[in-house]
């Protein structure tokens, strides 16, 4: 079977967030899926198979980190849609049935893909004990996103603080069910983005995720409320970076970005 590595939220190889993608006839047992994801050893590997015609979705979709299955993943969904379109397997709009509900992707004329995801709610909470020490930075505000993605959205003082973080991952691991999203307004919005972020997810086996699509279902409403604009662009990453364009649409968040296939080969297992 064919396996592909796709860099998502970028139009250049070796940037953005890499994801493994396997298109299957059906899902094998969970243990095999987890072993493949551990072998690929990227933030997420996506597994998809076609569904019978006439249902609410065209494809079933699951995502695994090297250690566990996750409920929502943006970059690996983008990567999967990219593979479907570039191989001629699908055109136009694709509807995925996933653990978090129906996710819709649309191939745009400019070569990007727009994803329609549920918007995460944001509940302000006190700064958890140990969070500032684990991040190594003073925290401005904290919001919980437990209903959809299970992260803490943490605003820091400025872009430079976010970019310079060197967290204590062991200490972060127990502070949320999935991870911590550190964010701040862009220092220079004329650079093409309004906010920055980094995502740390040691609880699911990922110390840092380069460009986290699902995190932007919380980042988009947070910064849109601050700036009074429905459409924004976020810059995420440490060593690897990427851009996510966001637009609020009621209780849904639209995420848009490029993707590029960098490796394609045979999985013999």
From TrEMBL:
One GO cellular component, as annotated: cytoplasm
Claim: Metal-binding is one of the keywords in the record: no
SUPFAM superfamilies for this protein: Diaminopimelate epimerase-like (SSF54506)
TM regions (residue ranges): none
Transferase keyword on record: no
Keywords: Isomerase
Signal peptide limits: none
Active site feature: 44
NCBIfam families recorded: PhzF_family
Family of the protein in this entry: Belongs to the PhzF family.
Identification of the protein by name: Oxidoreductase
Naturally occurring in which organism (per UniProt): Streptomyces vietnamensis
